[in-house]
Amino acid sequence: MSVVHQLSSGWLLDHLSFINKINYQCHQHHKPHCSKNKPPSFVNFDSLQMDSLSCFGASAPCTALDSTTKPENEDGGNCEVFTEKYVFRTELFNVTKPYITAPVHKKHQQSNEEESLMNGVKTEISISVVGKKRKRCVPFNHGELDAMEYHRKIRELLLDGSLQLIQEGRKKFDVIVIDPPWQNKSVKRSNRYSYLSSLQIKQIPIPELAAPNCLVVTWVTNRQKHLRFVKEELYPSWSVEMLAEWHWVKITNSGQFVFPLDSPHKKPYEGLMLGRVQEKAALPLRNPDVNVPPLPDHKLIVSVPCILHSHKPPLAEVLKDYIKPDGECLELFARNLQPGWTSWGNEVLKFQHVDYFIALESGH
Fold first, then answer.
1. Distance CA 319, CA 295 (A)
2. DSSP letter string over 42-94?
3. Do 341 and 316 contact (CB within 8 A), yes or no?
4. What strands, in cross-sheet order, belong to the sheet with 173-178?
5. I need a labelling partner for 244 at 20 to 30 A (CA). Which of 73, 112, 152, 252 fits?
6. Closest Cα partner for 217 from 304, 306, 302, 318?
7. pLDDT interval class at 105 (50, 70, 90)
8. Residues with Cβ < 8 Å from 26, sequence gap 6 or more?
9. 3-state secondary structure of 323
């Protein structure tokens, strides 16, 4: 679908996504074995399949290459067909800056123009262009005045409608799991990874990423300072209501705690703080007819931990009952990928490295 979001004012489209879902393919036939009587190219409307590779240009990115062998042709030879699938070059939609930057005095200039138009008076104006400045001392003609009047009529529609579509059309998440790199003495001593201060963690833009009623789950160390910070400062700053505190209990393969439960130093558990975003404005919820049960407090997640540092257990199955069926899921500071989730961080592929896996023997 090219429609990303729809409101009463209109639609927000993704042109690139629409192009790539058409499924462009090129078919090349191995010339020595193909019949000379075969048409040079054909188009299949459903998938826009084409025989000529040159129709896309040599620089088009290839995403797949398949080969099939057709039955014998009239000359008695086999015709081998190679299929290449293509996607549109993403850099052709890489528009990150306005084509022209609005002048600083735009608002003042616009108010003068509108005032003059309302009084029916022809005015003189200085036109500023970025990098150039020139004066025009000629009155506006009728065509220019008509264009300015038309712009005045539709300006509010364009401004309000576009902003609303852009804001609501941005991808929002129904669950956000965060595993922040907390600052502590052991991390400083080991220099194992970079860490963030409490102020830096607070600056993570959760309100911009969260959908209404978004479930926010934060991994927290057992340091009381961090636990209080999440409950008393972090979640309130994100407009997140603290609802539950869960614990991940780490055990051995034989069912023993990995550390003594009453150890004064290392504890065999870590905390999870769960809350939901409280929207200030009443925004429509996704699938309002779908109800999710309330979050229970003091639940345990018991598992054998991975010996790799900071390899957290996956939470998708644990949280599924508290997320809408079509919920969008995000993991921040992720160190591995999860099916159906969006992962963000500077180590998202860390535990996907081939060295952590072994190949299974293929069956005969």
1. 10
2. --BTTTTEES-GGGT-TTSPEEEEEEEEEEE-TTS-EEEEEEEEE---GGGG-
3. yes
4. 300-303, 240-250, 269-277, 210-220, 173-178, 329-332, 341-344
5. 252
6. 318
7. low
8. 49, 50, 51, 52, 53, 55, 56, 83, 84, 86
9. coil
Q: Which two tokens stand for residue 135?
A: 């004066």
Distance of CA 57 to the CA centre of its chain: 30
pTM of the model: 0.62
Residue-wise pLDDT for 17-68, tens only, equals 888 888 777 877 655 554 445 444 443 434 333 333 333 333 334 344 455 5
Instruction: Compute the average pLDDT of residues 189-212.
Output: 86
Structure tokens at 111: 């108010």
Amino acid at 74: E
Tell me how crowded residue 328 is: count the other CB atoms within 10 A of its CB. 19
Report d(CA 355, CA 161) in Å as an integer. 51
Q: Are 26 and 50 in contact, with CB atoms under 8 Å apart?
A: yes
Instruction: Supply 121's token pair.
Output: 């008076």
- Identify whether the C-beta of residue 277 lies closer than 8 Å to the C-beta of residue 238: yes
Which amino acid does the sequence have at 96?
T
Exposed (0-12), middle (13-18) or buried (19+): which is 208, by Cβ within 10 Å?
exposed
**In the prediction, which pLDDT does 187 show?**
58
pLDDT score of 96: 84
